[in-house]
Amino acid sequence: MLLLSRSKYIAPVAILVLMICGIFVPSKTYAATTLAESNYSTSGSVSFSTAATAGDLLVAICSSNGAYTLTAPSGFSTAINEASDPSQAIFYKVAAGGETTISCTYSGGTDAIQIIEFSGIENVSPLDVVNTVTSSGSSSIASSGSLTNNNYNDLLIAGITSDTNTSPSGWTNSFTQMISTSSGGKPSTRMAFGSAYFTVNSPSSYSTSATVASGYNWRGQIAAFKIAPSPVFSGDIVNSSGTSITSPTVSLTALNQSFSCQTATGVLGTSSQQIRITNTEPSDNLGWNLTIAASSSSWSDGSGQNYAYNNASGSPAGCTAGQLTISPASQVITPETSPEYGCTNTGLSAGADSAMTGTTPVTITSASSSASYYCYWDITNIGLSQAVPSMQPAGSYSLSLTLTLTAL
To answer: Taking Cα atoms as reference points, which of 360, 228, 242 lies closest to residue 295?
Structure first.
């Protein structure tokens, strides 16, 4: 709800005030990041017990006990792939839904595959970063290597492979083990492998390590995947710190009472009272409209004095009874400066300047399906002008308006 108000006409002075009382918005919430399933095999092919859910992150960690080439499963992208004794790679994809069996292709050696499914991951471009420096050795402590993530919220997945029968254990730095096993067999064919995960909420340097048998070659890797923000589609009016304002007020220019029609002007949306639209819905085709409309019949001072906001009669227009004009074309749209996602104004457009007629809403801003998401935008500098009829009686006038945010 938006309340348009005039502060007192102190005869012979007239002053208009626009008071913003709120904004109507829809909102949604979704589940947090969850490990749905993990499994492994030493045959190069492994199945989920339950078919993968569309939109979930699928990770395949493939390994071999020699310097052999590892080829990604069909439809998977490569996070990191190192062909050196032992060889290991982390591959990933966003599930189409229904995936059951995942297979890696190996050029030789004893092979292994770990498959992991997580929900709640950003499902358009999920990979953030991987460790960029090789992590390998033959000590009893096998390290994943380190990475520095870009996002405030990431899922870190680490994998370790070694040429031994001693399964990785004792993962450090709060990582939770998912898989830890070995293939068995003689020294020339045996291998051990495992994986662990950790969720973080700030950009920093992260790593983990696990205990393996000393004197055997090992390799470690780590990748960071973007956790999708809790999906929200909402609007608010906030101050410069982003705090919601309960009853914001915008003042229009003061006017002296006159025998002539006058125009009072003001601005909706300032640095201290910004209209903020937030869209972190996990969909790349969500367009939206922001509109404004009156929700009371006229300007009123509460004591029987009133005049119109939507009557075009007179010359200039609106001077006989009163008319309010909204000027969205002058607005400034500021996208969130995000360390996580590339928020831009692509796909956003300002509505046309419009005098209010009847109860028809005026479009302030529209977003097409090409607009960014996982973002918010602050909207300021919307022009307001009210034609005030001649000799309008002194008083404190108000007009209720409603801002409506609609998903398309």
So the answer is: 360
Query: Tokens standing for 234?
Result: 């909402």
CB atoms within 10 A of CB 204: 10
The set of residues, in sequence order, having a beta carbon less than 8 Å from that of 117 and lying 6+ positions away, is: 35, 36, 37, 38, 48, 52, 53, 56, 57, 58, 59, 95
Query: What angle (nearest 5°) sits at the alpha carbon of residue 176, between those of residues 170 and 181?
Result: 60
Boundaries of every domain in the chain: 2-28+230-407, 34-226
Cα 219 from Cα 161, distance rounded (Å): 5
- For the chain, 408 residues long, the average pLDDT of each consecutive 10-residue run is 40 40 42 87 92 96 93 96 95 96 89 95 91 93 95 92 94 97 78 95 93 95 90 86 84 83 91 90 73 87 89 95 96 81 86 93 92 87 93 82 84
Which residues, 6+ apart, have CB-to-CB distance to 338 below 8 Å? 374, 375
Residue whose pair of structure tokens reads 């956790």 in the numeric block: 227
- Phi and psi at residue 328, in whole multiples of 5°? -70, -20
Task: Tell me the sheet residues that pair with 182.
Answer: 192
In whole angstroms, what is the distance from residue 327 CA to residue 382 CA?
6
Q: How far apart are CA 316 and CA 323, in angstroms?
A: 10
Q: What are phi and psi of 143, to 5 degrees?
A: -105, 145
Structure confidence at residue 222 (pLDDT): 98
Name which of 315, 317, 295, 319 is nearest 307 in CA terms: 319
